[in-house]
Specification:
Structural class of chain A: alpha+beta
Shape of chain A: globular
Strand order of the largest sheet of chain A: 2-1-5-4-3
Largest interface: A-B, 55 and 60 residues
Shape of chain B: elongated
Oligomer: heterodimer
Largest sheet of chain A: 5 strands, antiparallel
Helix content of chain B: over 70%
Number of strands of chain B: 0
Strand content of chain A: 15-25%
Radius of gyration of chain B: 39 Å
Radius of gyration of chain A: 17 Å
Largest sheet of chain B: none
Structural class of chain B: mainly alpha
Order of helices and strands of chain A: EEHEHEEHHHEEHH
Distance between the termini of chain B: 69 Å
Helix content of chain A: 40-55%
Strand content of chain B: under 5%
Chain lengths: 161, 978
């Protein structure tokens, strides 16, 4: 079971955090901090596993990968899938994409991980679903909103392309 | 939207900040992040109350963002979340569901309100809406939600929309966990999905079974054929990995499984290009099929490939695999010895650590010296963290099973000393424990131990390192306890009293002071004995004998004997200063005596060190050093200082006086002083041994001893050490206090009885203080006659245990002929503890999973016969599908009829669960018209098998009266497998 997925930058600012157990927010913050503490103490070019018993309780393990300025946490292959998908989605994903696309990255995440299980390992499938959902969303917005709202919907649609 | 409402909402919308605005604002804000966020939250609080759904949902989206990445509580908005969830617009609904899965938990009150919304969305024709509901359910479902929505999920399990079905499959895991009865309804459909040709479905369902099987593997044995098929047919690495994980868990439950599965696994291992799959194959083989020589050999070859790979991850995994395999196939580690040792100096801490573990796994009696030497040297060059890992693992490996692999204890003790001096060493506590432990367990090592302790104590530099303080405490304790092995006790005293001891924390300092007391007593006692022996050649033997006796016997004897010793002692003191040559003689005697004293052949003092001057110097030195401490604010330090100073006060006058006067006038006084010294010395020379934590329970409380009353506060003070007071008494000699007071000092007043009582109470206190040093494991190395009082009561209370101890003792002494004195604690105790732990941990998941696995077994074994036949006959799929359909039909038509005959779990409420119950009841009836008896048996048997007691008990009473074919059931499972 996957307990949590996090993306954070090299300063320890979380860019995406999803916990699959119910964890109160202050505890979440603490966890992210301690994970960052562990990660920033590790050199480049070392293995990507950390025994995380002290942070997440017994038998848990932290798997991470370092991309540019971001740490990704999950199982390595899945991290690959996630990044691939993000890359496809945003064309060379960078930190700012994640900053500004809160909702979209959650859509992607939810297609790959489902309640702590891995649901989809093919980024093409994920992309398909994500695009469908985006379309559906912008459609539902643009059709029904009044004129003023439409202008706003434009900006929302822009976020989701 | 009408008139005013709509215009106001337009205004709201117009000026509302979107999530993007919020994010931009956050990045540009100048007022500080938290101020900005709280302003935003204020805004959101206003907006979220809006009647306009768009405004509301945007506000909620912003709130979710802040909750997720800025950790703001959003439980207050729960009701708004429900409102937005129910929006008909997909984009709003999505925001609502996202917020719900982010913020709802079991205790969220509004959860009750969303059941219908979820049900509606689960039945939606829009697959994305269904997906939203499923996602949300996978995250927040409670027992109630799971129960109420089980029928919908059941339906979705066979929907044609792959996108939805895979999520429905995944959500089942959560539903089962929350509402085990759902198994009865959904399990068959779940199993049917194993036959799916769609890779997405297969991945999802295998994932679910992998999780289920990790909780209670035994229940899923009947599905082994399905998994086997997937193992052979599937091309999807992800699926294969999961199936391998499942087999690894099933293997222990069915030995015959291995034969079938090992070959395909090896095939995958050979063929696959994916490292992840290869590693999973390796792991499965080494953890679950380690008795298959050829498979293991192949796995080791593959491990070697990983070990020499450039990717640190693969190296790490290779090392991990080796450590899994090490206990059973050490050759695999030895074969890769060079690589393993090489990675010890890798830059990656994970890899270093793993290879350290492997190196330690290779340690044996024959190479422990060599390996430890190498590692200690290496630790000097390592960073502090890894240095301590190394030291920790050496300490742990060497002390395992009571120093099982150590043959040369002198070497080990000096290694401990050496480790203490490693600059980064932070293992003070462990080294402390081992130093003391070794002292108590291994008699032969005491001289060396003292030497090491001395080395540590006299080095003033060490006092400045707080990590070493615990070690120094141990060294001080050793120096006091085993002072008889010292060549030069004066030097020890000097070390114990050196000015830099002020750097020590009070608790350690107290140990120092108390050890100084012991050293002082030893010196005085040696001095007295020595003087005695000078006087007469005839009493020499006597005194010798006496001193030996004194060592071993209890107070009564001791005090009687002192009476006859004392006069001679007195006389001798008279001669001492005058007759140099005579004194020289006496030195030898003194030396000899010391030897006897120590009961081993150890350092004789090269010159006469116990002269009058030296003793007086010693006393002065102690007074000088400890004087200032009478003002100490630490109770322990203060008390001990007082003890030692009062004692000196008591004897000093007498000793000096009588020596100066050389006269016989103060005979009685002198007698008194030497008596006191002897008594205390005896008290101190009582040997301490490791004591079991549970020893106390075996010791009956002596009559008339009011433990509770006297020691109530002490108990609270020393609550940490679980060792109750009386333990300490009976461990030594329970008679001490009484006898001393009565027999020898009846006459004397406080002053006199005080020191002796003090001695015993000091001893007690000492033991209390060093409660830590009393070992947790039981000990049989205690040489019987040394502890008669402790053993006697034991015998009375628990004779069996004691004989057991004896048997073991003899066995052990036979076994360890070479070094008969090497204590080996009874390993049974340790193992017992471990055993307990294991059972505890093993039981926990089982009880937790009781219901699910019970239900699973019921479903699976209920379908046993069917599956069994299906194995030989490939139409299995269709038949089970037919069943599924039948069930649904039944749902609709036979509702009433079935309600009656299905037994129900009591806590059910009839509304939403009817369906499922009907079904399970129906199903049962349907297949079991003639087989009810058999089925019952299954239940009973399952209960016995172990995990599903509760479940079995729950229904067994109703009908498990037919002792039919208990045996017939077991063979059924294996039938599929082979």
């Amino acid at each position: 079971m996957i307990r949590a997925v996090m993306v954070m930058n090299t300063q320890g600012k979380p860019r995406l955090a999803k916990f699959y157990d119910s964890v109160p927010v202050d505890k979440q913050q603490e966890l992210i901090r301690s994970v960052f503490g562990v990660l920033c103490s590790r050199a480049e070019n070392v293995s990507n596993f950390v025994e995380a018993d002290s942070i997440f309780g017994p038998d848990s393990r932290l798997v991470y990968k370092h991309y540019a300025t971001l740490y990704f946490l999950a199982m390595l292959d899945l991290i690959q899938v996630l990044v691939e998908t993000l890359d496809k989605c945003f064309k060379n994903v960078c930190e700012l994409d994640l900053v500004f696309n809160y909702s979209k990255i959650h859509t992607i995440l939810d297609e790959i991980f489902f309640g702590g299980q891995v649901l989809e390992t093919s980024s093409t499938e994920v992309m398909k679903a994500v695009e469908e959902i985006s379309k559906l969303e912008s459609a539902s917005n643009s059709i029904t909103l009044s004129q003023v709202c439409f202008w706003l919907a434009g900006s929302i649609a822009c976020v989701f392309r | 939207m009408a008139g005013g409402v709509s215009s106001s909402s337009i205004m709201e919308t117009l000026f509302q900040r979107t999530l993007e605005d919020l994010i931009k604002g956050l990045r540009l804000q100048l007022i500080g992040e938290s101020a900005f966020v709280s302003k935003a939250i204020e805004e959101i609080r206003r907006e979220v109350k809006s009647t306009d759904p768009h405004t509301k949902s945007t506000a909620l989206q912003k709130l979710s963002y802040l909750a997720s990445l800025h950790f703001h509580d959003m439980s207050w908005a729960a009701f708004h979340v429900v409102e937005v969830m129910s929006s008909s617009r997909f984009s709003h609904k999505r925001i609502g569901y996202h917020a719900a899965s982010l913020s709802f938990h079991d205790d969220t009150p509004v959860l009750l309100l969303i059941t219908n919304q979820l049900r509606k969305d689960l039945a939606s024709t829009n697959e994305f809406e269904v997906s939203l509901a499923l996602e949300c359910l996978s995250r927040i479902s409670t027992p109630d939600l799971a129960r109420d929505l089980t029928p919908e999920i059941f339906t979705l399990l066979s929907t044609t929309k792959i996108f939805v079905r895979k999520k429905a499959i995944s959500v089942v895991l959560r539903v089962f966990a929350k509402y085990p009865d759902a198994v009865r309804l959904c399990f068959k459909r779940l199993v049917e999905n194993l036959d799916s040709s769609d890779p997405q479905i297969l991945a999802a369902v295998v994932g679910v079974f992998c999780e289920l099987a990790s909780q209670d593997p035994g229940s899923y044995l009947p599905l082994a054929p399905e998994f086997y098929r997937i193992l052979v047919d599937s091309k999807n690495n992800w699926v294969l990995i999961k199936v391998l994980k499942i087999f690894a868990k099933l293997a222990p439950f069915e030995p015959r499984l291995a034969k079938r599965v090992v070959e395909p696994i090896c095939d995958h291992m050979r063929r696959t290009g994916a490292k992840s799959l290869m590693f999973e194959c390796i792991r499965t083989v080494i953890s679950s099929f380690s008795e298959y020589e050829s498979a293991v050999k192949l796995a080791v070859v593959k491990i070697r490939e990983l070990l020499v790979d450039d990717d640190p991850n693969l190296k790490y995994l290779g090392l991990q695999a080796l450590s899994v395999i090490a206990p059973k196939h050490l050759w695999a580690v030895l074969e890769n010895k060079e690589v393993v040792i090489k990675w010890l100096s890798d830059e990656d801490p994970n890899i270093k650590l793993e290879s350290l573990r492997l190196v330690m796994a290779m340690v044996s009696e024959s190479n422990v010296v060599e390996i430890s030497r190498v590692l200690v040297n290496y630790s000097l060059k390592s960073d502090p963290g890894f240095c301590n890992e190394i030291l920790g693992s050496i300490l742990c490996t060497c002390s395992r099973n009571v120093y099982e692999i150590i043959v040369d204890f002198d070497w080990y003790v000096s290694l401990l000393g050496e480790m203490s001096r490693i600059p980064h060493c932070q293992k003070g506590d462990e080294i402390e424990n081992q130093l003391i432990d070794l002292g108590m367990r291994v008699k032969d090592v005491r001289p060396e131990l003292l030497r090491v302790a001395r080395g540590l104590l006299i080095d003033p530099a060490l006092l400045g390192n707080p990590f070493l303080h615990r070690i120094l405490a141990a060294a001080a304790w050793v120096s006091g306890e085993y002072v008889e092995f010292s060549r030069n006790p004066f030097e020890l005293m000097e070390a114990l009293l050196q000015p830099r001891t002020s750097l020590l924390p009070p608790s350690v300092r107290a140990v120092y002071i108390h050890s100084a007391f012991k050293v002082l007593i030893f010196c005085l006692h040696s001095y007295i004995l020595q003087s005695e022996s000078i006087t007469s050649s005839f009493p020499d033997n006597l005194v010798l004998g006496v001193s030996e006796l004194v060592l071993k016997k209890n107070m009564l004897e001791g005090s009687e004997l002192t009476t006859c010793e004392a006069p001679s002692a007195h006389r001798s003191e008279g001669f001492n200063p005058r007759n140099q040559s005579y004194e020289d003689l006496s030195i030898k005697n003194g030396g000899d005596r010391t030897i006897n004293h120590g009961q081993t052949s150890t350092p004789a003092f090269s010159e006469n060190i116990f002269t009058y001057d030296s003793i007086i110097n010693l006393i002065n030195q102690v007074e000088l050093a400890l004087g200032p401490l009478t003002g100490s604010h630490d109770a322990e330090v203060f008390e001990r200082t007082r003890h030692i100073l009062c004692f000196i006060e008591l004897i000093k006058g007498e000793i000096t006086e009588c020596l100066v006067q050389k006269g016989k006038t103060l005979e009685s006084e002198e007698m008194k002083a030497s008596k006191i010294i002897k008594l205390i010395s005896d008290a101190f020379s009582e040997e301490l041994g490791p004591v079991s934590v549970s020893a106390q329970q075996r010791v009956p409380i002596p009559e008339g001893l009011l433990l509770k009353e006297n020691l109530d506060d002490l108990e609270t003070i020393c609550a940490d050490f679980q060792v109750p007071e009386s333990n300490l008494f009976s461990l030594g000699s329970p008679y001490y206090g009484e006898e001393v007071g009565v027999s020898s000092f009846g006459l004397q007043d406080k002053e006199e009885s005080e020191p002796s009582n003090e001695a015993t109470s000091l001893l007690t206190e000492h033991r209390k203080l060093h409660g830590l040093y009393y070992l947790a494991s039981e000990k049989n190395e205690i040489v019987g006659n040394d502890y008669p009082p402790a053993n006697e009561p034991k015998l009375q209370v628990n004779p069996n245990n004691d004989t057991e101890d004896l048997v073991k003792l003899t066995v052990q002494s036979l076994a360890t002929n070479k070094k008969p004195n090497h204590a080996k604690t009874r390993p049974v105790v340790v193992k017992l503890d471990e055993g307990d732990l294991v059972t505890v941990t093993a039981k926990r998941p089982e009880t937790k999973d009781d219901l699910v696995s019970g239900a699973v077994r019921e479903v699976l074994l209920g379908s046993d016969t069917r599956t069994a036949t299906s194995q030989s006959n490939p139409s299995d799929k269709s038949s089970s599908k037919r069943k599924g359909k039948e069930k649904i039909n039944v749902d609709r038509s036979e509702l009433k009829e079935n309600l009656g005959d299905s037994e129900k779990p009591k806590h059910e409420n009839p509304s939403s669960r009817k369906n499922k119950h009907r079904i399970s009841g129906k199903e049962r009836r349907h297949k079991s018209a003639g087989k009810i008896g058999e089925e019952r048996e299954e239940n009973g048997q399952k209960g016995m098998q172990k995990s599903s007691h509760r479940h079995a008990r729950h229904k067994a009473p109703h009908r498990s009266d037919a002792p039919l074919n208990v045996v017939s059931q077991t063979p059924v499972i294996p039938d599929f497998l082979l």
